[in-house]
Specification:
The protein has four helices and four strands; from the N terminus they run ααααββββ. The chain has 124 residues and is of the alpha+beta class. Strands 1, 2, 3 and 4 form a four-stranded antiparallel β-sheet that branches. Strand 3 and strand 4 form a beta hairpin.
Length: 124
């Protein structure tokens, strides 16, 4: 979960580059049982529920004024969607203003106190 959270706070746009160039080279002493990139991708789906629980616990007080936005989280190219096994039975097809994608939809809700909520939704 720590690696996933830090990836989203980093300036990397590609998780593979982040993991292979940043985590594996700079942080092996912090993660002594670091697995290969391919194995990490296989294990990544098991962090979804604990991450949602963690984000739920970090939720701030609702003040009544909220700003809401969403974005699509594509997990692979559309051509590879039928072969995708990493998020099998979790990811789904969705449509955004840019067209169809296979993956998840991220909803962000933030208030004026900068307390944020993050929810992962399956796309409709």
């Amino acid at each position: 979960m720590t690696i996933i959270i830090y990836f989203h706070q980093s300036s990397y746009r590609n998780f593979k580059d982040y993991y292979t160039k940043h985590v594996c080279s700079l942080f092996p002493k912090y993660f002594p049982q670091l697995v290969s990139y391919n194995r990490f991708v296989e294990l990544e789906k098991s962090a979804l529920i604990p991450l949602c629980w963690y984000l739920h616990l970090r939720r701030g007080q609702s003040t009544g004024i909220n700003f809401i936005d969403s974005t699509s989280l594509e997990i692979c190219l559309n051509q590879r969607a039928k072969r995708n096994r990493v998020f099998k039975n979790l990811a789904n097809w969705g449509k955004s203003s840019l067209g169809w994608y296979f993956g998840f939809k991220l909803h962000l809700i933030i208030n004026e106190e900068a307390r944020n909520f993050i929810f992962y939704d399956y796309p409709c």
